[in-house]
Amino acid sequence: MKQIEISPVTRIEGHAKITVQLDDSGNVSDAHFHVMEIRGFEKFLEGAAAEEAPRITPRICGICQTAHHIVSAKATDAVFQVKPPETAEKLRELMLLGQYIHSHSLHFYFLGAPDLIMGPDSDPAERNVLGIIKNNPDLAKMAIKTRAVGQHITGIVGGKPVHPVTAVPGGQSRGIDAEGRDKLLQEAKECVGLVEAGVEVAKPLFEQYAEAIETLGPVETCFGGLTSGGKLGFYDGQMKVIDKEGNMIHEFEGADYLDYIEEKVQPWSYMKFPFLKQVGFPEGSYRVGPLARLNIVDEVPTEKAGALYGEYKDKFGMAQNPLLYHYARLIELMYTAERAVELLEDDAIMGDDIRQSIEGLMTRAEAKESDETLRGVGIIEAPRGSLIHDYETDGAGIIKKANLIVATGQNNLAMDMGVRETAKAMIHGEEVSEGLKNRLEMIIRAYDPCLSCATHMINGESPLLVDIHDADGILVKKHVI
User: Fold this and answer.
1) At CA 436, angle to CA 431 and CA 437, rounded to 5?
2) Which pLDDT tens digit goes with each residue over 125-174?
3) Is 222 flagged in the annotation as binding?
4) CB atoms within 10 A of CB 357
5) Is there a contact between 426 and 217 (Cβ–Cβ < 8 Å)?
6) Residue 191 is labelled as binding a ligand
7) Domain limits at 101?
8) CATH number of residue 371's parent domain
9) What is the pLDDT of residues 73-103, one digit of tens each?
10) Sequence-separated (6 or more) residues with CB below 8 Å from residue 35
């Protein structure tokens, strides 16, 4: 049996590869998406004070840091049973919008767009961010300006543009003044125009690559995401799960996720495979993120994004094709810019009441003598999909156990299936072109996976496998840690 290996998968966050196994006739017998990195944040949190978690968890990733910061703060709100004041929740939502503007623009323009602008079969040396800058410098400048708006929002609201610090149990540690509000409002309004220009560049690309949209990564799954009254939103709401025809099968509060979601380990990946418990594995595969959110909601409640959503639904309906994640991402990018303007035009964003105090915790000594357990679950929509932080603490608020369900993990089974089905349809024989290999990578890129976020175990069911090679690259030993 011959194996084709694509390593590494490029233009994603983290380290992964694709392997394709061919039978003696040159047809695909199996294929998998392998995630090889591993990080230990679930274990790192054990023994930490819960109020430290919003400062620890942003270090999981330099791209998704704001999402982890905010969902961690929401989990600690629940641990201490406090509800942040209105201004604090508006500030947190605004900070999360900054994350979306930064992340969505980075992914579409610099990670996903090279395949569409230069073409899937183009020279890999040109098919990247440098190729975008060389071939379309105006587009590259527009992308950089858009991303900068997101970073400025995070910097002013979150205290730092990377690894923000202001979301704390019970609210925010600081607010924003009129000068900061006015600066961000001007930039957010400019961002709406920048996104409009980007959409006009992108729309013809989705027409041009209609065949690729139909053929790459074909899977049909359930979808999950937060919604409030059927509207698109990222900070709050109930988790809604629909089947592949769009019928609702679950709706639940984030704290109840363990009744509906289970995780499975597979031998080819360090990333776990969440699935719907009542459906079972693998039939219970479900997806999250931009494509899922636009399938779940009934309305995108801003003017320009709402119009784009209407066009999208008229054309694609209940969308299943992974490459449409790119289109959905642009619609969400427009929504985030418009929603940022709405929040910044509301004078409540500058309010002084930004934190509810935390009272009633035990002392550390009392907690050692007590069996009391506190639990807090936070859930938000991160750019890549639903993100859950679940902390159990003692009576003094020291974390005893942490569980993180990350968006990329929830898409893991669909990515794996999409690679396998596309490989079976397109590969016949040992000679595989660079363009065809890139098409398999395009499936993974469409999901915008963040592997640093999604691989967080350092013990348990997933052993560390170490391959030892000699100086000539020959495998001499496999070692299990």
Assistant:
1) 90
2) 999 999 999 989 999 999 999 999 999 999 999 999 999 999 999 999 99
3) no
4) 9
5) no
6) no
7) 2-466
8) 1.10.645.10
9) 999 999 999 999 999 999 999 999 999 999 9
10) 14, 15, 16, 269, 270, 271, 412, 451, 454, 455
